[in-house]
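Just scan my protein:

. . .
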Amino acid sequence: MRVAVVGKGGAGKSMVAGTIARMVAQRGERVLALDGDPMPGLARSLGTVDTSEPLLADAVERKERGPWLLKRGIGPVTAIRRYAREAPDGVLLLQIGKITLEDHPAFLAAVQAYWQLVHRLEEARSLESWTFIGDTPAGPRQIAADFSPYADTYLLVVEPTWPSVLTARRAAKLARMREARVLPVANKVRQAGDRKVLEDRLGEPVVATIPFDEEIKQAERLGVPLIDHAPASRGAKVIEQIVERIETRA
């Protein structure tokens, strides 16, 4: 599986990405979670402590005003070994870091390192059988800047609101320009008619509907993964179905 999860801020991207990563890992598969979002989210959804430290800044160097380059000897496998952190179920989390005013230069270096590393993931034969699950920042900018070249599937998480729909439309267009499969997923659906409204506004069908679920809200309030807090919840069951759909290429 090579998946990037995209959508508007607050749509539920990190929850979906983290839950999918844990579900796949629980079946014994190797999973690399890729966090390109400078806002907190994926680490908590996986069940590990978030950190603002841009660890990947150490992976690149720059001579005078030249381009940032990966340091000699650092490729995807080495970077994962050095800078990825282990989450529950053996998921490895590689992230840009969370931006702060104090470490702004280091954060910019980490962004450069992350971009170069994700572009080399497919070179590593030892990672061929791994699942990659990427959590992207809000909006379509990272798709346009090619921060998820590993993805052959974009999971488009969208709420039944116009701002979320407009973001989803732009993201879907960019993903399809990269010849990737786009799977729209409705999230936080409260009423039976919300799915139809979303489909009309998107101009295409959604592949799954995650209901507004108090168990999901409770997990978010507690800062714990949905898969630990309520693995049998309605939301978790739908995400299981989404995993099956991705795998079967349906």
In short: The radius of gyration is 18 Å.
